Amino acid sequence: MTNRTLTATAVERIRVPATGQADHFDQGYPGLALRVSYGGAKSWVYFYRLFGKQKRLTLGRWPSMSLSAARDAWRNARTTIDKGENPQHQRPAAANSFAAVADEWLKRDQAHRRSCAATQRLIDRCAKPVWEGRRIATIGRRDINDLIDSVADRGAIVMARRLHAHLHRLFRWAVGRGILETNPMAHLPKPGSEVPRDRALTDPELAQVLKNVTQLRPPFGPIFQLLILTGARRSEITALRWSEIKDDTIILPRDRTKSGKAHSIPLSPQVVDIIKQLPRIGPRDFVFTINGRNPVTDLAASKEKLDGLINIPAWHTHDLRRTVATGLQRLGINLQVIEAVLGHVGGSRSGIVGVYQRYSFDAEKRIALEAWAREVERIIDGEPAKVRYGGRDERGQRGNAVVW
Q: Using one digit for the tens of pLDDT, what is the confidence trace for 219-254?
């Protein structure tokens, strides 16, 4: 054991003992020592007394922790001891940063939610770049208002309102965990108002989309085709698995649907033909994948490219689902069947009706989606409507498979 004023050069030159370990104390910093083992490892340790007992705390390893960093850690540990607390139980400062708390919140409060991935993307995109390394306790109402206003000022009112909701829940959770004393977002109003969308593509607009999706790089073209032909949710198609396709039906388990109930999607001959042409990539079970390991998750880049190929007013990918519902209604499909196609549990199937009405409408869904597929063919060709509810045209013949 030695006791001297350490310097960065001296620390580097300290010799390795032949056996065991040696402690080199830093004079002027009581209890702080560089422990050198015969194997060559050098670690900063702090010897202290707490409630009359001798204890040792490892601060970090040299050279990852420099001499100056070790002294800073020593000061923090002494401050903790002066409060009567054990520094070994002290959380690192980084654990109280906004990024660390947000990650912990996503893991413990949001992981069970189907919207967890979307919530994480919003936090990563809007909040982390501004507050990532900042202590969450220093974030006040003005900071939060500035962040949300910056999103709203871009015209993204819906995104700003959802960011407000997610941050409010995050800060409220942090209060419950003892990380914060108060929620800085308490009684903080949301910006603007969220107007429900009612956008459905017209036939000419849908024709433009259908005729240009083949120019998207695989597998995004077929994804858009299936969204249009099935009316399924985006996540239900992008994360589709080969094991979920049973002959001419997609069977989604309850953990893959927004409603939390199993959902079947009958496939028209047109969809079956599209799926048959898809290659199997990699050892995993995903239908739409680029690397063979994970499903595609983001259609934004492909949607942007598609927008450059067509000339229609602003639209969202989710508008395709509304377009399918509108098209089915135009074909005379019963509202209950349309809701069954979309996998809705609200509307005509909500409340007490949903408890006792267990009929799945599988046959009706198949007839409706086959009728819609032929309607899509008509839309592509720009011909007058010939399809009638029941799945046959004016001549009583089933439509031919469409090839895009």
A: 999 999 999 999 999 999 999 999 999 999 999 998
Class of domain 2-90: alpha beta
> 21 exposed, middle or buried (CB, 10 Å; 0-12, 13-18, 19+)?
middle
Q: Where are the domains of the chain?
A: 2-90, 95-176, 203-381
- Tokens standing for residue 332: 């005379």
What six digits make up the tokens of 101? 């708390």
* Beta pairing class for 249-252 and 21-26: unpaired
To which residue do tokens 């899509």 refer?
376
- pLDDT at residue 390 greater than cutoff 50: no
Q: Which CATH superfamily is domain 203-381 in?
A: Intergrase catalytic core (1.10.443.10)
* Backbone phi and psi for residue 230, each to the nearest 5 degrees, phi listed first: -110, -25
What average pLDDT does range 89-112 have in this prediction? 83
pLDDT, tens digit, for every residue of 167-193?
999 999 999 988 898 999 999 999 887
Judging by beta carbons within 10 Å of its beta carbon (0-12, 13-18, 19+), is residue 10 exposed, middle or buried? middle
Q: What is the DSSP letter of 9?
A: H
**In CATH, what number does 95-176 get?**
1.10.150.130
Segments of 131-276 assigned E as strands: 245-246, 249-252, 263-266
* Mean pLDDT of all residues in 275-286: 92
SS3 at position 46: strand
If pLDDT is split at 50, 70 and 90, which confidence band does 353 have? very low
Q: How far apart are CA 193 and CA 133, in angstroms?
A: 31
Angle between helix axes 141-152 and 157-176 (nearest 10 degrees) is: 160
108-121 pLDDT per residue, tens:
999 888 788 889 99
CA distance 200 to 41: 67
Q: Give the pTM.
A: 0.58
Q: Which residue, 249, 226, 236, is CA-closest to 404?
A: 226
- Would you tell me how many other CB atoms lie within 10 Å of the CB of residue 259? 15
**21-26 and 2-4 beta bridge pairing:** parallel
Q: How many other C-beta atoms are found inside a 10 Å radius of the C-beta of residue 326?
A: 17
pLDDT at 30: 93
